[in-house]
Amino acid sequence: MGLLYYLRCRRFYSFDEQHFWKYQMKQFEKNYSHALQNIPFYKANNYPEINFSNCRSQEEFFDLVQKIPILKKEVLKSNNSLFFSNSEFLAKTHTTSGTSGTPLKLKANIFEKAELQMIKNYWFKKINGKFFPKLLILSGYYVPKAGGPIFFKDKFTNDLHLSIYALKSQNVNEIKETIERECPNIIYGYASAVHLLAKVLGSDSLANKNEMVAVTTSEILQPDWRNVIETNLVRKIHNFYSSQECVHGIFENEDGLMKIHPRMGFIEILDQDKNAVSNGYGCVVVTGFMRKSMPLIRYEIGDSIQSTDYNVTEDSIPLWPEVGEINGRSEDLVWKRDGSRIGYLCFHATKNVDGINEAQIIQKGYESFECRLSIRTNANKDEIEDQIKEEIVKRLDTNIFIEFTYMGFIPRGANEKFKAVVVEFEPSDQ
User: Is 189 a residue whose pLDDT tops 90?
Assistant: First the structure.
């Protein structure tokens, strides 16, 4: 299977615009047919039978797609298990980060995961020259104990993991020495974490800076962050925009253009009336091609993207359609008294806590927080509160005051966007 995936990835990079759209039409038809036949939700909700075989143009394809209902995230959440295929071999479920409010259960098999990894590895080779690069992964999944290691190495992949909670000035020498000794090829992580690492290390560049690139995921890559990262940390940064639902993939190429990968999914950019946007910003609606275990058809993911009307820049390899600026997932970064900031605090504080429907953390001062919760009727409030407070204390390394507020539905902000973390104060000395 590995050779098949490799050859497929290589073929994608030879696609011109015509081949791109021909492939997208074929994959859309294939996955839509699979969903209608095998997935309980689509079977139960009378999705229309559509004959894509007579499509002769991109415009005809778009018109036919418009006949299919848009899948809202709320509908997916409330019918989560109805999107699972029961026929997929070696499929397992996992949980999303819940940045849109409520975590989702997702299903994927080992072949789907392997193909995704091949797609990423092939892109790694394009941006850094190595098909199996050594990664330095900035991880929020573990918190170093006092005096304990801030790095650990994966025995199987040889990748390094550095806790985002160790990105402090007192660890600069150890971080610098480890990066120069281990020589990773790619620094991979949340955009905010890569930016914080670059700030902590400062302008005294690493000896191996020009041998590394950075790949940022999961958050909006702010323009000023890019400058700091490329000044202090790596020779170049590349943005990767996708989702844990694995319904699309947009990769930044060597020219700095965000290219839609043909294999991962079909991307629509729509206005409020659900019409295609040719110029300007619109909501992202995606149809995945790689997850037969859990196919999502015309899924409104909750982000917005600047449309270029699927422009293809001549002489910019690969010749795939492009998008402009991405306004994806965004949350505030929690302040610590030492001036450092922490991302994804709500996710890491609540991901292993049972009984939560939605959670939002609001920082009101350095050690003062409010946690808004929507919980299930049989949930144990005391256990939930104890676990959340313990996780926050562990990650901020300080005692805190936290007030818990319970509500049926956590209010959304502008454009109905959910923010898992909101910071309501600005330190006067920063």
Answer: yes
